[in-house]
Amino acid sequence: MSFSSPASLLEAEQQPDRPPILRVEPPGDAARWAAEHRAALRARVDEHGALLVRGLCLREPAEVGALFGGLAGEPMTEREAFAPRESLGDGLYSSTAWPANQPMCMHHELSYAREVPGLMLFACLRAPDGGGATGVADAEDVLAALPAALTERFEREGWLLTRSYNDEIGSSLAESFGTDDPAAVERYCRENAVDFTWQPDGSLRTRQLRSAVVRHPVTGRRCWFNQIAFLNEWTLDPEVREYLVDVYGEDGLPFNTRFGDGSPIGEDVVKLLNATYEQHTRREPWQDGDVLLVDNIRTAHSREAFTGERRVLAALAEPRRLADFCPTPEARQR
């Protein structure tokens, strides 16, 4: 059985508006290949922020799980999910449940959590008929491109995520916290700096203040790391937003974001954030068997709307507890 030589890992194609693409000859054992070349692959991710590997010919979830294990070791269990996923065992998940005709704009996975994945892994078992690419955007470049007055405010105040859990929209308590036991949910919230309030109907509302700009734990460089635009009401399809506000009220939306001082974020700000992301997006249409590795702190990712069946699996790995995950009182006073 032969494997690609380590030198070939330096030959990732780089073209404007596309992530680096590494083309490999199909190995007989993709998991073994990944384990043997783990250091070189991670070096390419560190260099570029993301890497698309093409030619592994993955077909089944078990193959994906084995390859991800060889690349990243022990996977993370997702907590505080904003939308349901199907768990496929051993830290492997389906893509987030999200309407195919609605894009998922740029975000960093679990940027509002106390413990965040340093690495995201995606594998395409079936490419859609059209659209559906997972785009990537460099968080350092996005930060530099945004207006200084805006980023300075977010860096000073942080951003506030509000959530209202119900049985109809978004993740349930059990899907988000791994349990629907109120005492266990409260314990998790206290341990992870999440303010919570139980409503008269038994539903839960939470608020958590998080940093919008963090330093990368390896490079020390400042990154625009948040989900301010993605989880904001103005990113929703207008008809969906109107329906949710009508049913749940402004304060009862399944999720929303605000400035760190609690004031609303205007539609103009959200449009600016999404437009800046788009200017820095690199994308490549999925092909069956592709694997995409993403530095989750340095690189945001998105999902285009699509047609046809799309099957992309995901895993979260390399958990990080960021020292600056929440703005300090000193920073908020600057």
Automatic annotation (TrEMBL):
Question: What Pfam families does its record include?
Answer: TauD (PF02668)
Annotated InterPro entries? AlphaKG_dependent_hydroxylases, TauD-like_sf, TauD/TfdA-like
* Residue ranges occupied by any TauD/TfdA-like domain in the UniProt entry: 32-313
One term of GO molecular function: dioxygenase activity
Q: Where are the annotated segments for Disordered?
A: 1-26
Q: Any stretches that span the bilayer, and where are they?
A: none
- Please verify whether the record's keywords include S-adenosyl-L-methionine: no
Database matches in SUPFAM superfamilies: Clavaminate synthase-like (SSF51197)
Iron as a keyword of this entry, yes or no, is yes
Q: Which cofactor does it need?
A: Fe(2+)
Any coiled-coil regions, as ranges: none
Entry keyword set: Antibiotic biosynthesis, Dioxygenase, Iron, Oxidoreductase
Protein name stated in the entry: TauD/TfdA family dioxygenase
What species was this sequence derived from?
Streptomyces tropicalis
